[in-house]
Amino acid sequence: VQLQAFGGGLVQAGGSLRLSCAASGRSFSRHSIGWFRQAPGKGREFVAAIRWRGGQAVYADSVKGRFTMSRDNAKNTVHLQMNSLKPEDTAVYYCAADPGDYTRIVSGWNYWGQGTQVTVSS
């Protein structure tokens, strides 16, 4: 599975952005998909994920209620709608895929996209 994240940009605090992750590969629907982010000088952290079996997405506490993740298996695409953005959301956002169940641990994901920059100004 190859992944490409896009949709990042510069937005003021309180604004919204929609990230997308396009995947290639016929087995996309059988991969869990996750979003992670990495702020300058910090480690990569879990943001959200959806299991390959479907069901509701799970979120980090820091984004719960503000971010919404969805997937469209017919289009091999996942989205991350980010509302009420805060300066602390500034980071490079990565999408990841794995044929297994989701995990909040970075090392648990097999495939990674190249990342897209999100900058939230105060």
Shape: globular
Mean pLDDT over the full residue set: 93
Rg on CA atoms, Å: 13 Å
The quaternary structure here is single chain
From the N-terminal CA to the C-terminal CA, the straight-line distance is 37 Å
Strand content: over 45%
How many helices? The count is: 0
Tell me the major beta sheet: 7 strands, mixed
Note the run of SSEs as H and E.
EEEEEEEEEEE
Helix fraction bin: under 10%
Structural class: mainly beta
Would you identify the regions where 5 or more consecutive residues have pLDDT less than 50? none
Report the strand count: 11
Task: Describe the overall structure.
The protein is mostly beta strands and 122 residues long. The protein contains no helices and eleven strands. The strands form two sheets. Strands 2, 4, 5, 6, 9, 10 and 11 form a seven-stranded mixed sheet that branches. The chain has a four-stranded antiparallel sheet with strand order 1-3-8-7, with no helix packed on it.
Secondary structure elements and their pairing?
Layout: E1 2-6, E2 9-12, E3 17-24, E4 32-38, E5 44-50, E6 58-59, E7 67-72, E8 77-82, E9 91-98, E10 111-112, E11 116-121
Parallel strand pairs: 2-11
Antiparallel strand pairs: 1-3, 3-8, 4-5, 4-9, 5-6, 7-8, 9-10, 9-11
What's a concise summary of this model?
Helix content is 0%, strand content 50%. It is mostly beta strands.
